[in-house]
Design goal:
The protein has twelve helices and eleven strands. The chain is α/β, with parallel strands linked by helices. The protein has one domain (4-348). Strands 1, 2, 3, 4, 5, 6, 7, 8, 9, 10 and 11 form an eleven-stranded mixed sheet that branches. The longest helix is centred in the first third of the chain and has 16 residues, at 107-122. The protein is globular and about 55 Å long. The two termini are 23 Å apart. The mean pLDDT is 97.
Length: 359
């Protein structure tokens, strides 16, 4: 069974028909939030950054939220392939031990352990990531406003209730509660127009890299918010996926610069985390006209362990049985090598009949 779906927006599809696809055509690579789902993109990441993009030398913008920010920061390491292998191992084997009277670890436990892991992962390499000569990193976070300005036992749940209800009415209304804050490589602007949503750009630095990355991965109520990040406006910062789950950003405003190549775990590019159940917001828009999406076929996903991608519910399902969870996640990641192999085969012998319109 084939594993890989290829979708393209109209401008990207026209480019493929007229010029094909070269590494030099790529201007931006987004990386979605989605927790363990992102694990299946490891082989694609290793191929893209370890082999394919090295055949060109143009600047490439890397935009990530949550696990996507972790992946894109790893792409900026001197040895990115080794980094991706370690990320995969560390993520699969992360474990938060609970006591017999605990159903799940506390947010304090998870935040402390995750912070220590990030520090160990990037120790001594932050300056090189922030100032990478070619890859321009953009870390997406969500900054709380009004009731969400500071994490609080009752104001935070109330604030997220307000955010949920506001988002139901209109996505822009979510901006009353949360602001998109993008930490961008020094003297670089994001590769997209951010006027679709309340936004702010902050220069990424050695001092704020680690708190910004942890904030981008800080799922509300699962981890603690990160407060008062250096160089950024004061307040509580949470997972970038809340405002920008799949980074459905206006890349087409910069389409003249090149194409957006998006390794993703599904074909749909959902705007915000609160839009997951709002199917009418899952459709493609003109923002994505210059985008190519690589994603697994649903029938291929159905053949994975538990007939699904790894996800956060597995932490609860397997509980303290780390061995069982590691086994099924490892099997899924090993199977996902097929995605990278099929993409490499397509690049070697492009078949435009395999490319579907992005819908």
């Amino acid at each position: 069974m084939q594993a890989l779906n290829i979708h393209a927006g109209p401008r990207a599809l026209a480019h493929l028909h007229s010029q094909g696809l070269r590494p030099a055509d790529i201007h931006t690579i987004p990386a979605a939030a989605g927790g363990p789902k992102g694990l299946i993109l490891g082989p694609l990441d290793r191929f893209l950054f370890g082999q394919w993009l090295s055949q060109s030398d143009q600047p490439v913008h890397l935009v990530g939220a949550s696990i996507g920010a972790w992946r894109m920061a790893t792409a900026c390491l001197d040895s990115s392939v080794t980094g991706f292998q370690r990320l995969e191992h560390d993520y699969i084997h992360q474990h938060y031990q609970t006591t017999p009277d605990q159903k799940k670890p506390t947010a304090d436990q998870v935040s402390a352990e995750f912070g220590r892991n990030l520090e160990a992962f990037y120790r001594g390499q932050v300056a090189g990531i922030v100032r990478h000569p070619r890859f321009k990193l953009h870390i997406v976070t969500s900054r709380g406003r009004f009731l969400l300005r500071r994490e609080h036992p009752w104001r935070t749940p109330l604030g997220y209730t307000g955010a949920y209800l506001s988002n139901l009415g209109h996505r822009k209304a979510l901006g009353r509660w949360l602001e998109r804050v993008v930490f961008s490589a020094p003297q670089v602007q994001p590769p997209c127009d951010l006027s679709d949503f309340r936004s702010r750009v902050v220069p990424l630095s050695v001092q704020n890299f680690m708190p910004a990355l942890q904030a981008s991965c800080s799922i509300p109520f699962v981890l603690r918010a990160v407060h008062d990040i250096p160089g950024a406006p004061p307040g509580a910062y949470w997972d970038g996926g809340i405002t920008d789950y799949h980074l459905h950003l206006n890349y087409a405003a910069h389409a003249q610069a090149g194409l957006v190549l998006y390794p993703h775990f599904q074909a749909q590019v959902v705007p915000g985390w609160l839009d997951k159940a709002l199917k009418w917001r899952h459709r493609s828009t003109a923002f994505l006209d210059n985008m190519i999406v690589l994603s697994p076929k649903p029938a291929w996903v159905a053949q994975l362990p538990n007939a699904k991608l790894p996800d956060r519910q597995d932490f609860m399902h397997y509980g303290n049985d780390l061995t069982a969870r590691v086994k099924v996640w490892t099997q899924a990641v090993q199977a996902s090598q097929q995605l990278a192999d099929e993409w490499q085969a397509w690049l070697d012998s492009p078949d435009l009949a395999q490319v579907q319109p992005l819908r």
